[in-house]
Write a structure and sequence with these properties.
The chain contains ten helices and four strands, in the order βααβββαααααααα. By secondary structure, it is mainly alpha-helical. The chain has two domains: about 80 residues, Rossmann fold, CATH 3.40.50; about 100 residues, no CATH class. Bound molecules: zinc ion.
């Protein structure tokens, strides 16, 4: 896993260099003497503050960044890069009350890990006899062929594709996440609930 904290602070050419390995799972380094390709399948996690001052919504010291500054800051993460980020979530700063709250109701990591393990097992079982092991590795042709979803499940995605909100690459990524959501809840295949939820995660909608 590659975690880039304060991602907009990285030079744009560095961020954009991540696009090729994200897509292909390989990285090619070219020099005058020739080029060499290395395996580079990884999970990319980017964190970003909503603005350069990094003081979101504090009552005692509110952020003074203009909407323009904020937009420009986040725009450093280019569209083509964000296209390749499957899940985008906004996280609000925790209040003192939340930090001190009773944590007995919070799911322990052990329980979450078990659920992830089972979901991965379901995917591996489905892909038995193929070269891929998880939904992220499913090639586009297979995704739209053997694993094509019924019209009802596809409807919200096709609407966004037609209006230009969702790119063709984004569509494939949303579909793979929808399969993972189905695996997490032990459903045979994603329905409209999973495709809509996956679309919301790709768009980064507030929930
Ligand atoms: Zn600010």
């Amino acid at each position: 896993m590659l975690f880039l904290d304060e991602a907009p602070e990285f030079p744009m050419n560095v961020l954009d260099a991540l696009r090729q390995p994200l897509e292909s799972g390989r990285v090619t380094v070219s020099r005058s003497l020739g080029s060499i390709t290395f395996p580079a399948r990884f999970m990319l996690v980017l964190a970003a503050n909503p603005c350069p001052c990094a003081q979101p919504s504090r009552q005692d010291d509110p952020c003074r960044c203009t909407p323009m500054t904020r937009r420009r800051y986040l725009a450093r993460l280019s569209g083509p890069l964000l296209d390749r980020i499957d899940v985008k979530v906004s996280i609000l700063r925790a209040t003192r009350r939340e930090l001190l709250a009773d944590r007995r109701f919070i799911e322990p990591s052990r329980v979450v890990a078990e659920r992830v393990f089972l979901a991965r097992e379901r995917a591996a079982k489905r892909f038995a006899g193929t070269p891929w092991r998880c939904n992220a590795e499913m090639p586009t042709g297979v995704l739209h062929g053997e694993y094509r979803l019924p019209g009802k499940a596809m409807a919200p995605l096709l609407r966004c594709l037609d209006s230009g909100v969702l790119s063709a690459r984004g569509l494939d990524r949303v579909l793979r996440v929808a399969w993972t959501l189905a695996d997490l809840t032990d459903r045979a295949r994603p329905g409209v609930e999973e495709t809509s939820a996956a679309l919301g995660l790709w768009l980064g909608e507030e929930r």
